[in-house]
Design a protein that fits this description.
By secondary structure, the protein is α/β, with parallel strands linked by helices. The protein is 42% helix and 14% strand. Helix 5 packs antiparallel against helix 6. The chain is globular and about 70 Å long. It starts with 15 loop residues before the first helix and ends in a 13-residue tail after the last helix.
């Protein structure tokens, strides 16, 4: 984000007043950290008492080891829970209580029906039908047979959506507290232009769902083989459903956003669900749904038909401040001479910093996100304008991304260009930059086009334009969003107007 002229109470950098202000901020943060450490020590003390008393032994034996859970595992687990509840209240029909040999040997027919129903709600009729038909009780279970008939009938109504008419929308980090983001300081203009509030996001999501929109993966639109050759995919949807691609940029929770009303990182909670951390005014940490990833996860839990075969969105990452709120870049450990002030300040506040632990935390979250249908993309390591930088700089930046980010996310063949730029203005890709990125394994390329549709599927790449759903677009070009939602119904009254123009 481009920083504007200082307009708030923060003094100008380089002045004596700025140094005094910075010292006060550091002191305040140190106090906050001390409070957090005291809380952790108290919690550890309580745990120790429980251990000594022998209480924790029984608790630990029940809990077992925490592991990542796939979407299908969760479906199965939820089905078993629901089945137990339903069985207790049911008439205990023999057909419903038979056990299945096809779902781990322990799932009941009712469990299988629940799993199949979720698959069907997410338009995966073939898998739903297969799951039911391969069950040992299928031949005698009228409910299963009826479900298969229903899914076959619905599948027959589906048509292949024209891939050139799949739109792609994106956001930046969502604003949780508008009073902090829009507080009149030098960052307010940027936030107002390119960010979206949680209230706006939730309204957009609900409206798009009500209009029949369904999240799809770009890898449903085009398939890449092991050699990077591309072929058209297929998206089959029943009448009234409209596919779209969702993405979010800069999901790194940059240092400069601290204290401005944004979440600070992504975490996996005790239930295995992805949540956010948020630092409250008193320094305490709240855990909740404060950004796009957990908000979409919760929405799909309630509305499975908002996701096509389990697809969620694409998370575009830089690397220079780490990823997902974790300080995973090697520079935090190597501390080069040109280390920027934000990193220096953060490291001074975290003397117990461990690069290994930060990377472990980020990888845990990334693995959980992938299990929930999220995909990752490069946003370039250093948020580079690929259309303007030299090939040599692009190569150096890509190497940093592959060294510091790829190992944490399992690699990616998607690149979402920073600044909405592209490697060329030409109709088709060619040239040294494209050939380099292609040779580095990138098959999917996304820019910012802002038109309703821009899709290219070529022999060697997939290319798609994206539409920004932010303050600037809603204020200046609401007509460009009319196919998605009415901007007047969405626009947050807490957002200062006029929204500053770009440039």
């Amino acid at each position: 984000m481009e920083k504007g002229k200082h307009q708030g109470t923060r003094p100008e950098m380089g002045t004596p007043e700025y140094e005094e202000w910075r010292k006060r901020m550091l002191a305040r943060r140190r106090k906050r950290l001390q409070r957090e450490r005291r809380k952790r020590l108290i919690a550890m003390g309580v745990a120790l008492v429980l251990v000594i008393g022998g209480v924790s032994a029984g608790v630990n034996s029940c809990k077992g080891k925490k592991t990542s859970v796939s979407r299908q595992d969760k479906i199965s687990a939820n089905a078993k829970t629901d089945s137990a509840k339903d069985t207790a209240a049911s008439d205990g029909s023999a057909a419903d209580s038979k056990t299945s040999d096809t779902a781990g040997g322990s799932a009941t027919a009712k469990d299988i029906l629940v799993q199949a129903d979720i698959l069907a709600q997410q338009y995966n009729y073939d898998e739903a039908i297969k799951l039911l038909k391969q069950d040992s009780s299928y031949s005698s279970n009228e409910k299963m047979q009826a479900a298969v008939k229903k899914y076959e009938e619905t599948k027959a109504t589906c048509t292949a959506w024209p891939l050139e008419k799949v739109t792609h929308v994106f956001y930046h980090i969502l604003i949780k507290d508008t009073s902090k983001a829009f507080d009149g300081d030098y960052k307010e203009a940027d936030y107002n232009q390119v960010m979206t509030t949680i209230d706006e996001f939730n309204k957009i999501t609900q409206t798009m769902y009500d209009e029949g929109y369904v999240m799809v993966s770009i890898k449903d639109m085009a398939k890449a083989d092991e050699n990077g050759n591309m072929t058209e995919g297929e998206i089959l949807l029943p009448p009234g459903k409209i596919p779209f691609v969702l993405s979010q940029d800069d999901v790194c929770y940059y240092h400069y956003m601290d204290g401005d009303g944004f979440a600070t990182k992504l975490v996996v909670d005790d239930e295995g669900k992805i949540r956010n951390e948020y630092v409250e005014d008193d320094g305490s940490i709240s855990v909740g749904d404060y950004d796009m990833v957990p908000l979409i996860d919760r929405f799909v839990e309630e509305h499975p038909d908002f996701s096509y075969r389990g697809a969620k969105g694409i998370i575009a990452l830089t690397g220079y401040n780490g990823i997902l709120g974790y300080r995973t870049d090697e520079s935090y450990e190597t501390r080069p001479a040109d280390l920027d002030d934000n990193k220096v300040e953060w490291l001074n506040e975290h003397p117990d910093f461990s690069l290994e632990k930060e990377r472990e935390g980020a990888k845990k979250v990334a693995d959980a996100m992938k299990a929930e249908g999220w995909e990752f993309a490069s946003h370039t390591w250093g948020h580079q304008n690929v259309g303007q930088i030299s090939l040599e700089k692009l190569q150096a930046d890509t190497e940093k991304f592959k060294k510091n980010v790829d190992p944490l996310i399992g690699g990616t063949d998607i690149i979402i260009f920073a600044f909405g730029t592209d490697i060329t203005d030409a109709e088709d890709y060619s040239g040294d930059k494209f050939e380099y990125l292609k040779n580095q394994g990138y098959n999917y390329y996304c820019n910012v086009d802002s038109s309703q549709y821009f899709v290219q599927i070529r022999d060697r790449y997939f290319r798609q334009g994206r539409r920004n759903l932010d303050g600037y677009r809603m204020y200046y070009n609401p007509e460009l969003l009319e196919d998605l939602f009415n901007a007047k119904d969405v626009f947050d009254p807490a957002r200062p107007t006029p929204v500053p123009p770009m440039g």
